[in-house]
Amino acid sequence: MKILQNTTTWIVATLILLMAATRYNHFGSSLALPDASYAVFFLGGLYLGRVRGGWSILALFLLEAALVDYYAINYQGVSGWCVTEAYAFLMAAYAGLWSIGRWYAPRFDMTGKGLFGLFATAVAAGSLAFVIANVSFYLLAGYFGSMSVAEYIARVAGYYGSYVAVAVIYIGCAVIVHMGYTILASKSARNTKAV
After folding, report:
1. CA 20 to 30 Å from 59, out of 69, 100, 127, 150?
2. pTM over 0.90
3. Are 1 and 49 in contact (CB under 8 A)?
4. Has residue 14 got a pLDDT over 80?
5. Rounded CA gap, 111 and 120, in Å?
6. Residue 127: which H helix or E strand, with range?
7. How confident is the model at residue 24 (pLDDT cuts 50, 70, 90)?
8. Element housing 8 (H / E)
9. Which of 117, 95, 105 shows the shortest CA–CA distance to 48?
């Protein structure tokens, strides 16, 4: 059980650091990785959603996202254009990512079927989060009174692929780390039995 607790601590710390390091830049640049927030919440649900205190960890991640945004806007000169009445719906989008990751957790394994299911689930979760964030922004931001729904959809559709693809890439990297950890843990267990 202590190994599981240590693993949980490492996962929490890694996801906190990943979001803190990437949340400033939605799309990435030559100097910064793209925002990993979608992946952080999905992976949080996948790996931490069913541990004791999992919902508290979700609350911690939500608080971190808000604090990083506050810091970026007030001290780093990042535009606050997206912070409107719709901002509260990011909690719903992120909670959706977490909940879908949590739902998939007992189905997840390192088989081809499990990995394909993870990919499909991650795409669906990222899509849902994108829709929640953008529909609420359209309806509540106060910027789009004269813009039709069709025009708004046409404008944001270009961002959809990058949001979901970035999340899936980060999730794929986490799976690679998970595979490496599993292999090392298996070798360590075999070596311990041999002694």
Report:
1. 127
2. yes
3. no
4. yes
5. 14
6. helix 112-140
7. confident
8. helix 2-22
9. 105
Which tokens is 34 given?
Answer: 């793209």
Question: What is the distance between the alpha carbons of residues 2 and 7, in angstroms, rounded to a whole number?
Answer: 8
Tell me the pLDDT tens digit for each residue of 158-192. 999 999 999 999 999 999 999 998 888 888 777 77
Nearest CA to 119 among 134, 103, 130, 108? 108
Q: Specify whether the CB–CB gap between 79 and 46 falls below 8 A.
A: no
Determine the Cα–Cα distance for residues 14 and 143; give it in Å rounded to an integer: 36
Q: Which amino acid is at 180?
A: G
SS3 track for 75-116: HCCCCCCCCCHHHHHHHHHHHHHHHHHHHHHHHCCCCHHHHH
Q: Give residue 195's pLDDT.
A: 58
Tell me how far apart the alpha carbons of residues 7 and 185 are, in angstroms, rounded to a whole number.
12
- Residue 108 is predicted with a pLDDT of 95
The answer to whether 82 and 45 are in contact (CB under 8 A) is no
C-alpha to C-alpha distance for 132 and 21, rounded to whole angstroms: 24
